[in-house]
Design a protein that fits this description.
The chain has helices at about 40-50, 90-105; strands at about 5, 15, 70-75, 85-90. The protein is α+β, with helices and mostly antiparallel strands. It has two domains: about 1-30, no CATH class; about 35-105. The strands form two sheets. A two-stranded antiparallel sheet has the order 1-2. The protein has a two-stranded antiparallel ribbon with strand order 3-4. A hairpin with an 8-residue loop joins strand 1 (about 5) and strand 2. About 10% of the residues are buried. It comes from Mycolicibacter kumamotonensis. This is HNH endonuclease.
Length: about 110
């Protein structure tokens, strides 16, 4: 069943869109990176978690569980080198990611 077209998510834009997108071509933004992990990521992740003794490096007060289950890129523009990776717990990683996302939205430029 087809869905009804919706308006662009950009405030004030009245362009109608088909399903699968939330912004028109005038308001879409380019994204850096990809969701795919590089070859060998599983072993890299395991190595970093062991190196950091499964302990969260952020340890945000009132949020941290102390037990790291994820690996964070300290500098998002850096690569997958061990020096740019650190063990982090899920709640701290989520807070850091949201803060970085908000920051990038303030500095990101639209593609037009």
């Amino acid at each position: 069943m087809k869905r009804a077209p919706k308006y662009c998510a950009e405030r004030g834009c009245l362009e109608l869109l088909s399903a699968g997108t939330d912004r028109c071509s005038s308001h879409s933004m380019s994204w850096v990176g990809t969701r795919k992990r590089p070859p060998g990521w599983r072993s890299t992740r395991a190595r970093i978690l062991c190196r950091d003794k499964w302990t969260c490096y952020l340890q945000l007060p009132g949020i941290c569980t102390q037990h790291a289950t994820q690996v964070d890129h300290i500098d998002n523009l850096g690569g997958d080198e061990d020096g740019n990776l650190a063990a982090v717990c899920g709640p701290c990683h989520q807070v850091k990611t949201r803060a970085e996302s908000r920051e990038s939205q303030l500095t990101r430029q639209p593609m037009y």
